[in-house]
Design brief:
The chain has 148 residues and is α/β, with parallel strands linked by helices. The protein contains four helices and ten strands; from the N terminus they run βββαββαβαβαβββ. The termini are close together.
């Protein structure tokens, strides 16, 4: 089973996780695969999709995805209450925004006027990234699966 799918929506690369858990058993492999898939786009949305649990290694992978590079905009989203609760428990919202819907995250990535810059992720070896916050809106696109 693939670890995530790839879609292109509104000129953004959208990676949707298919794994329910991101932990010591799979975080390195999935994390590296996601980073590789992210390298091909300037705007990336990582939809945590099926993810309901992560441990410290999984959290480190998520932070590396959010950090990205200076020339890449990255947003994260999840509709999982468990994932949002873990982010709140870890006070991760001070590092990176986790949008509650794909539509909100896509709007943040595609919004050209009135961008709101949030704090950059720091202390992550992959570099510093950018995150933005905004309203709602989505579009259609193409998709493909990727084994992880």
């Amino acid at each position: 089973m693939p670890a995530f799918t790839i879609q292109t929506i509104q000129h953004c690369r959208v990676l949707t996780l298919l794994v329910e858990s991101l932990d010591a058993g799979n975080a390195q492999k999935v994390g590296e695969s996601v980073l590789q898939a992210m390298s091909e786009s300037r705007r990336v949305l990582v939809d945590l999709g099926a993810l309901h649990y992560f441990d410290v290694r999984g959290f480190a992978a998520i932070l590396r995805w959010a950090a990205g590079r200076e020339d890449r905009e990255v947003c994260l989203c999840s509709d999982s209450r468990n994932v949002h609760a873990l982010f709140e428990l870890l006070r991760a919202e001070s590092l990176v925004t986790l949008f509650r819907s794909r539509e909100q995250a896509l709007e943040a990535l595609t919004n050209r006027g009135g961008e709101i810059r949030l704090p950059q992720v720091t202390g992550v070896s992959a570099g510093k990234g950018r995150a933005m916050a905004a309203g709602a809106g989505a579009g259609s696109g193409t998709s493909e699966g990727l084994a992880g």
